[in-house]
Amino acid sequence: MSDLKIKIGAYDATTRSVPVTFTSGDIKHMRSVNAVLKDDGAYDKAATKARVDEVARGVAHKIILGVLTMPVVEEAATSVADSAAAK
Length: 87
Prior knowledge:
This protein is an alpha+beta fold. It has one domain (5-86). Helix content is 39%, strand content 23%. It contains 2 helices and 3 strands, in the order βββαα. The chain has helices at residues 45-65, 74-86; strands at residues 5-8, 17-24, 27-34. A 3-stranded antiparallel beta sheet has the order 1-2-3, covered by helices on one side. The mean pLDDT is 89.
C-alpha cells in the first residue's frame, strides 16, 4: 500500500463525513468516509485520519484484487459496443 496516496477533503457537518480520494498509479477511487466526532460533537480530525487509514487498507486490497480499476473511457466503451452490434 506504500504507493497509495490519500487526499482528505473538508469535513461536511451535514453528512458528518469527509470526501476522500485514494490514488494508486492511474487508479483513482473517490468516496465519502464517516468522520469521527468527539464526545461534544466536534469534528475529530486526528481520529478521522486514523479511520481513513483503515478504509485505505481495504481500498488497497481491492486494487490488488482488481476489484477497483481504472474507469472505462466512454468513447472506448462505445466503440466496443458498436463493434459488437455490427457482428
